[in-house]
TrEMBL record:
Residues annotated as transmembrane: 7-29
InterPro entries with a match to the protein in the record: AB_hydrolase_fold, Hydrolase_4
Domain Serine aminopeptidase S33: from-to ranges: 82-203
Keywords linked to the UniProt accession: Membrane, Transmembrane, Transmembrane helix
This protein's name: Serine aminopeptidase S33 domain-containing protein
Pfam families named in the record: Hydrolase_4 (PF12146)
Length: 319
């Protein structure tokens, strides 16, 4: 009996060890790619229908007591379809109001502009953005692309931080709808100083799948949300090719230590090259001291150098 008991214990220990090894392998090796995250369903509209449907989205947000008034989507239109229109996407935990000044800058240049609100963002409970899933972001991008589709003859998309993640996805899966992309410190993965590279898979599989209780970087950025934006990045086309893309602009804050800047340059440049598009890569001037929040109106550096920065954004977008 003692021999049998010892053998049973060895077997149990072995099974536990195998299960533990399988669990560890799953955490680090389980892929985050899915066919459902690699296609857009865009309903194209004419100008009148775009404006009508966007106004309904804004009205729905106005009627939603959970949405902060300053977080409602923004529409700036010249009253007709213009030669150029652009959609501007805010970042993780952000809201449309952070993009309002940039939207006005492009509007004054002659663009029709739409700034949508990402799912679970801009709510009175600022931590609700942690509920967002990659599948919701894909639907949000498809719906938003359809809404902006009738606003201009030539369409572009601008994204800051996590909005850059989404803008890159839209360029590749937007079926040629967007011919220009401007990426402002795009967040594809955190800088290694923030999250060691070996932990990125853990971030995606445990936080991205909502298996661990949420945590918040600097008390504001949800780990779950950050992980789901990385999952969107993991579902880019393997060749990064974007049909119909003519130009890619990339601007990174000189003092940005939050994103993987090398990855940002690599993805943006490869997308441009493989799409036959031109590519412009610039960094904000060192003397400005601009970090990751190179678009946020409340940032001291952005306030001080607003005209120089915003002129730079338009120039890099249009080049």
């Amino acid at each position: 009996m003692a021999v049998r008991g010892k053998a049973l214990m060895i077997t149990i220990v072995g099974v536990v060890a195998v299960l533990a090894a399988m669990s560890v392998a799953w955490v680090f090796l389980c892929p985050s790619r899915s066919a459902n995250l690699q296609k857009a369903h865009i309903q194209r509209r004419d100008y009148d229908q775009s404006v009508k449907d966007i106004q309904k989205v804004i009205a729905d947000d106005a009627a939603n007591g959970e949405v902060r008034p300053e977080s409602r989507p923004i529409l700036k239109t010249h009253g007709k379809k213009t030669a150029r229109a652009v959609m501007i996407l805010h970042g993780v935990s952000g809201e449309p109001s952070a993009m309002a000044e940039l939207a006005d800058w492009f509007y004054q240049t002659g663009y029709n502009v739409y700034v949508p609100r990402a799912p679970h963002h801009g709510l009175k409970d600022g931590k609700q953005h942690g509920k967002v899933r990659a599948s919701e972001l894909v639907k949000f991008m498809s719906d938003s692309a359809g809404l902006v589709s009738g606003l201009g003859d030539e369409l572009g998309v601008i994204g800051h931080s996590g909005g850059g993640t989404l803008a890159t996805w839209l360029a590749q899966y937007g079926d040629g709808l967007f011919s220009r992309v401007l990426l402002l410190s795009p967040y594809y993965e955190p800088d290694a100083s923030q999250v060691p590279k070996w932990q990125v898979a853990l971030l995606c599989n445990l936080y991205g799948r909502h298996l661990l209780p949420d945590q918040f970087f600097d008390g504001a950025l949800s780990y779950r949300a950050l992980a789901n934006y990385v999952i969107v990045k993991q579902n880019y086309r393997s060749d990064l090719k974007a049909v119909g893309l003519k130009h890619v602009g990339l601007i990174i804050g000189n003092e940005d230590r939050l994103i993987d800047s090398a990855m940002a340059r690599d993805i943006a440049e490869k997308m441009a090259k493989n799409s036959g598009a031109t590519f412009t890569n610039e960094t904000t001037p060192a003397h400005m001291g601009v970090g990751h929040e190179l678009i946020w109106p409340g940032d001291k550096a952005v306030k001080q150098y607003k005209k120089e920065l915003y002129d730079m954004y338009v120039r890099v977008y249009e080049r």
